[in-house]
UniProtKB/TrEMBL annotation, chain A:
Residues 157-303 form the Aspartate/ornithine carbamoyltransferase Asp/Orn-binding domain. Keywords: Pyrimidine biosynthesis, Transferase. It catalyses: carbamoyl phosphate + L-aspartate = N-carbamoyl-L-aspartate + phosphate + H(+). It comes from Cecembia calidifontis. The keyword Plastid does not apply. One of its GO terms (biological process) is 'de novo' pyrimidine nucleobase biosynthetic process. Heterododecamer (2C3:3R2) of six catalytic PyrB chains organized as two trimers (C3), and six regulatory PyrI chains organized as three dimers (R2). NCBIfam families: asp_carb_tr, PRK00856.1. This is Aspartate carbamoyltransferase. L-aspartate binds at residues 87, 170, 224. Catalyzes the condensation of carbamoyl phosphate and aspartate to form carbamoyl aspartate and inorganic phosphate, the committed step in the de novo pyrimidine nucleotide biosynthesis pathway. Pfam families: OTCace, OTCace_N.
UniProtKB/TrEMBL annotation, chain B:
Transmembrane segments: none annotated. It holds the Pfam family Pribosyltran. NCBIfam families: PRK05205.1-5. It comes from the Bacteria. The keyword Glycosyltransferase applies. It comes from Cecembia calidifontis. This is Pyrimidine operon attenuation protein/uracil phosphoribosyltransferase. Residues 6-162 form the Phosphoribosyltransferase domain. PANTHER family: BIFUNCTIONAL PROTEIN PYRR. GO terms for molecular function: glycosyltransferase activity. Keywords: Glycosyltransferase, Transferase.
């Protein structure tokens, strides 16, 4: 198979395990490209991509922009904070105006779950979801799984604990879908208030004791406490969260086993992860960032080839 | 399906040996030369050349595999995206003499893409092209081989199929077949 089963990447839920494998195999080749003295290929030189970000982002936006430029696409960037959205323009009007300027693909981040799905139904360009509210963040899940595959050889059969603010995380949901499709076992861990009700129905284990979760897993994917999404107090204080759910080097040393630590960033150092863990030999956080560009190149390349 | 044998195993072996002697004549100790096999089928020819060179003269030549999928000019003109193959080049080609190796030269588009892809590893001093089969009068680009096994006249309706024991065939052979 050399073609994706979809012309948009809206979420991991919508794609197949074969799609994910194809993206990984293509990303392997792009990773090699990124290690050349000249890190650029002309594959998308006839494509214009609009990065439409209605929410703040540093690494995702930068990663997409680099991926697009490495593929020789023309890139336009749109940020809602400096746009006509501030004057009351609707999402569809904003995007249609951008598309009238002959844009072929749209990479969109939006605070509303389903915004890219809405767009995909109304415009002709290929859509890549760069995060929609607390719903999905498919490219993050793909690069996470790709990084696990790179580090441990395979994803199938591995035990992955997703630890932290599961309730407000789009990364958690996409990771659960992606890792399960690839044959991994998943556990979510965090305070009761930050674990969604009925999450077991997705086939994941639930644990509230971080040490038990770390003992169980091969990989700990630690998530950020998303204070900006929290309208009410879910735990008494960051200090208390850190005390009960933060991960430090002493905990890892007590485990006396190989464990891979991941984090999609940005890290709240000293809250969910101590620096002695984030910067330790267990951590593959920077490899995740590096792999992000290759995986996003693969996604854009494959979507651009879908008729 | 009609099939016509172009080269049998013995003829291929003779050609590969000839290629090696030509390479030794032109590149002497291979001090400044590298060999690159064009994916997907060039590496099989390359591996045989490297092995034969080693047997003839004991020379170990730096070699690598080059994939030009991302540099092709027909991406998005096909029904499906092209699937890339592995590029494995552990050296820079800056200032080197490069010999590009492939099995069949047809339109010249793959070689053009390969020249483009190759530049990502440095600016070579000189580039030569080696092919087992040159399909005459079929070129879209002005590309000619420096080392050629055999030249054949073919129709658009024909296909040059290359069979290698490494790919599970009983013997090495090159055929001209009618496209289905």
């Amino acid at each position: 198979m050399s073609q994706l089963s979809t012309r948009h990447l809206l979420g991991i839920k919508d794609i197949t395990a074969e799609d994910i494998q194809l993206i990984f195999e293509t990303a392997d080749n792009f990773k090699e490209v990124l290690n050349r003295p000249i890190k650029k290929v002309p594959s998308l030189r006839d494509i214009t991509i609009a990065n439409i970000f209605f929410e703040n982002s540093t690494r995702t936006r930068l990663s997409f922009e680099l991926a697009e430029k490495r593929l020789s696409a023309d890139v336009v960037n749109f940020s809602s904070s400096t746009s006509s959205v501030k004057k009351g323009e609707t999402l569809i009007d904003t995007v249609n105006n951008i598309l009238s300027m002959k844009v072929d693909m749209v990479v969109m981040r939006h605070s509303s779950p389903g915004a890219p799905h809405f767009l995909a139904k109304n415009i002709s360009a290929n859509i890549v979801n760069a995060g929609d509210g607390t719903h999905e963040h498919p490219t993050q899940a793909l690069l996470d799984a790709f990084s696990i595959r790179e580090k441990l050889g395979d994803v199938a059969g591995k035990k992955v604990a997703i630890i932290g603010d599961i309730l407000h995380s789009r990364v958690a949901l996409s990771n659960i879908f992606c890792l399960q499709k690839l044959g991994a076992e998943i556990m979510v861990c965090g305070p009761t208030t930050l674990i969604p009700k009925h999450i077991q129905s997705l086939g994941v284990k639930v644990e509230h004791d971080v040490e038990k979760a770390l003992k169980w897993c091969d990989v700990a994917n630690v998530l950020r406490i998303q204070l900006e999404r929290q309208q009410i107090k879910y735990f008494p204080s960051l200090r208390e969260y850190s005390l009960y759910f933060g991960i430090n080097k002493k905990m890892l040393d007590r485990l006396d086993k190989e464990i891979v630590i991941m984090h999609p960033g940005p890290i709240n150092r000293g809250v969910e992860l101590n620096s002695d863990v984030a910067d330790s030999e267990h951590s593959i956080i920077l490899q995740q960032v590096e792999n992000g560009v290759a995986v996003r190149m693969a996604v854009l390349y494959l979507l651009a080839g879908v008729k | 399906m009609q099939k016509r044998l172009v080269l049998d195993q013995q003829q291929i072996a003779i050609i590969l040996k000839r290629f090696c002697y030509q390479l030794i004549e032109n590149h002497d100790t291979f001090e400044n030369t590298v060999l690159l096999g064009l994916q997907p089928r060039g590496p099989i020819v390359l591996d045989k050349i490297v092995k034969t060179l080693q047997e003839i003269s004991g020379i170990k030549v730096p070699f690598g595999y080059l994939d030009a999928t991302f540099h092709r000019d027909d991406f998005r003109r096909r029904d499906f995206p092209l699937k890339a193959n592995e590029t494995k080049i552990d050296f820079l080609i800056e200032g080197k003499k490069v010999v590009l190796i492939d099995d069949v030269l047809y339109k010249g588009r793959s070689v053009r893409a390969a020249l483009d892809a190759m530049i990502a590893f440095g600016r070579p001093q000189k580039v030569e092209l080696m092919v087992l089969v040159d399909r005459k009068y079929t070129r879209d680009y002005p590309i000619m081989p420096d080392y050629c096994g055999v030249k054949v006249n073919t129709l658009e309706s024909q296909y040059v199929s290359v069979e290698w024991t490494e790919k599970g065939f009983e013997k090495d052979a090159i055929w001209i077949t009618e496209k289905a």
